[in-house]
Amino acid sequence: MNRLFLLALILAGCSNGDNGKIRQSVPGVYIRHFEAAYSRGDDTLFISRMNGTNSYRVIRKSTFRRIKNKRWGEPEQKVESWVVLYDFENKNLYEQKRERRLTPLPDSNKLWVGTSSYSKIE
Question: Span 52-75, mean pLDDT?
Fold first, then answer.
């Protein structure tokens, strides 16, 4: 089934329309600040298009602090790297390993990763 999905994405690469505008707007740097009951921090996404394909590399850098014994702990950092494919039918990006869906909104310089909103800064 994964092969059929990839083949459909490759064959759909010939169509353009809104897809061209969306695909061109995706590369860049996106940020998000988050606060929860026991942590707070910042996420940064660095997205670049892979040469001649409908694939993008996403580097996610997170810095956060957790509450330990009613005090903010030392900053912790986490770095992840993903490869996402552009889905022409749904006009979004899909990461297969963890089944993440990234939805670009080029008119508002936003990118949604699941239910988290990121703002484009570059």
Answer: 92
Total domains in the fold of the chain:
1
Distance CA 83, CA 106 (A): 20
C-alpha distance from residue 40 to each of 65, 67, 72, 81, 107 (Å): 6, 9, 9, 21, 28
Residues 84 and 99: beta-carbon distance below 8 Å: no
* pLDDT (0 to 100) of residue 14: 42
Model pTM score: 0.79
- Do the Cβ atoms of 32 and 118 come closer than 8 Å? yes
| Dihedral of the alpha carbons of 31, 36, 40, 41, in degrees to the nearest 10 | -20
Strands 116-120, 71-72: pairing is: unpaired
**Residue 53 DSSP symbol:** S
